[in-house]
Amino acid sequence: MTINDFKKENIIDLRNKEEYLKFHINGSRNIDYITLLSNPNYYLNYEDIYLLICDRGIQSMDVSNILKRKGYHTYSLEGGIKKLKK
Questions:
Q1: What are the domain boundaries of the chain?
Q2: Percent of the residues in the chain that have a pLDDT greater than 70, as a whole number
Q3: Domain 3-85: which topology?
Q4: Are 10 and 51 in contact (CB under 8 A)?
Q5: Cβ–Cβ < 8 Å for 77, 57
Q6: Distance between CA 16 and CA 24 in Å, rounded?
Q7: What's the whole-model pTM score?
Q8: What is the rounded CA–CA span in Å between residue 55 and residue 14?
Q9: Engineering a disulfide at 20: which of 5, 30, 37, 60 sits with its beta carbon 3.0 to 4.6 angstroms away?
Q10: Each residue of 10-28: pLDDT tens digit?
């Protein structure tokens, strides 16, 4: 899957607000990883597919794996925002 396969509102940037404001994907949502993991039912549903993004792809992969075990359909952007900037 590529970034274009996801609805913009289902792209979730896990970085802090300052990093998000410096550079982000237009239409993406900024939900830091602690907030998302604390209450995933508030932000996600079990029917949609989500792309999680962080700085280098490591944290988003970890969060995606946790959410997958809870039944959500999540993916991580390999290489994160740093790869997109190149």
A1: 3-85
A2: 98
A3: Oxidized Rhodanese; domain 1 (3.40.250)
A4: yes
A5: yes
A6: 11
A7: 0.93
A8: 8
A9: 30
A10: 999 999 999 999 999 999 9
Which residue in this structure is represented by tokens 């792809």? 57
In whole angstroms, give the CA distance from residue 53 to residue 58: 9
Which tokens is 67 given? 């959410």
What does the pLDDT look like over 57-75, one tens digit per residue? 999 999 999 999 999 999 9
Rounded to an integer, what is the distance from CA 1 to the centroid of its chain? 14
- CA 60 vs CA 3, 34, 75, 86: distances in Å: 14, 11, 8, 19
Judge whether 43 and 55 are in contact, CB under 8 Å: no
CA distance to 46, 51, 64, per residue, from 40 (Å)? 10, 14, 11
